[in-house]
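Researcher: Re-running this chain for the archive, since the previous output was lost when a drive failed. Same request as before.
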Amino acid sequence: MKMARDENISTAGTLPEGVKQGKNSWGKTGYGGPCPPSGTHRYFFRIFALDTKPDLPPGAAKNKLLKTMEGHVLDKGQLMGRFSK
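Model: Regenerated structure tokens:
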């Protein structure tokens, strides 16, 4: 399995226990961390509690996941962080 260098998180589409990763903002699977082009940028990390397990393939796009989650969100949270180079 290919591993992300610093975070030690696999870039595989499917992780242990059936966890699936979607595409990130670079169009790849796996966590890449914040990477602002310049200055300080805001990054939003969101978490959702669902009443069902989404049936999507690894590499699914964000819009597809959000559509699949409609009507199944029990609760949600958000963390905003500011990062700069």
